[in-house]
Design a protein that fits this description.
The chain contains seven helices and twelve strands. It has 305 residues and is of the alpha+beta class.
């Protein structure tokens, strides 16, 4: 009997029909973004752990790429075929390399840079509104290892940073920052993921201070593209009256020791008898005779009578 394969195929068809009823086709996705399919792959080099995120669908993956720049292509890894969910793979700063994947199936869908119409690509996060535009896409002047921390041992000049772009933005907004070193303390060793930011208030990057890398570079060096103008010194900004002595031909102070009134008061004090000077503004009075002298005059007048 050769009817077994026939009945087996019938059973399989019925099973698929039941599954289709339990898991209907996912609803169509609504998005302002579109992207062209480059190719489908069986596998591709995996992204870093910071750049693989759960996705509700292909359209969400396009939107996520648009919101996390730089992103020149994106890969959607299918998960549940009935709900349309999967995983979104990003490769910031890279271009698609077809030789890094294997063709022959459609597990991975590779899309070019999404076009989201009026929804402009979200720039890389910076420290604030004061950052200059050059920080959005920083270009490292060197990639090194073992470069020493700032002179203050990171007490004031080091901070956490969401990316190298954010690090450079912090350098631009700092009161004084000549250059910055971004340390990608993330599993991907990527400047587009979180790390630490070292800011150097003066001087220039000295490659002689760096050490030889045993593997991939671990530090990214950036010069400040928008340095602030030097702040005027306190001595030059102070007023002339506070910074220079009075000239010799200036008018004497009314209460100074060189005034005529003060000289008169000093002379009267040195004589010891002149106690009624005009320093208090009162009118001069006559000579006052009192004490023993007045008594003697009174006795002489009495004797004369």
């Amino acid at each position: 009997m050769k009817t077994t394969p026939f009945w087996a195929s019938i059973a399989l068809t019925n099973a698929l029909a039941v599954l289709a009823q339990q898991y209907p086709e996912p609803p169509p996705e609504v998005s302002d973004c579109t992207a062209s399919l480059i190719t489908t792959l069986c596998d591709y080099k995996p992204p870093g752990p910071n750049f693989a995120v759960a996705s509700s669908g292909k359209a969400h993956c396009w939107e996520y790429c648009n919101e996390h720049q730089p992103c020149d292509f994106v890969i959607f890894a299918a998960g549940n075929p009935y709900t349309g969910t999967g995983t979104c793979w990003l490769y910031p700063g890279e271009t698609f390399d077809e030789s890094a994947g294997t063709t022959g199936c459609d597990f991975l869908s590779v899309y070019d840079k999404p076009d989201c119409g009026d929804a402009e690509p979200t720039p890389t996060p910076t420290a604030g509104a004061g950052a200059c535009e050059a920080t959005a896409s920083p270009s490292a002047v060197a990639t090194v290892c073992g470069y020493p921390a700032p002179d203050d041992d990171c007490f004031y000049s080091c901070s956490a940073s969401s990316s190298s772009s954010n690090c450079l933005s912090q350098c631009v907004e700092a009161d004084s920052c000549s250059y910055a070193v971004f340390n990608p303390n993330n599993p991907s060793n990527s400047p587009h993921a979180p790390g630490s930011c070292w800011m150097y208030s003066s001087g220039t990057f000295d490659p002689e201070k760096a050490q030889t890398c045993s593997g991939a570079p671990e530090q990214f060096v950036y010069e400040n593209p928008c340095p602030k103008p030097p702040t005027p010194s306190s001595s030059s900004s102070s007023s002339p009256s506070a910074s220079s002595p009075a000239s010799s031909d200036s008018a004497p102070s009314p209460t100074g020791s060189g005034s005529p009134r003060a000289a008169a008061a000093q002379g009267a004090t040195s004589d010891g008898d002149a106690s009624n000077d005009d320093s208090n503004g009162s009118a001069p009075t006559g000579v006052w005779l009192g004490g023993p002298l007045a008594l003697g005059l009174a006795v002489l007048m009495w004797q004369g009578l």
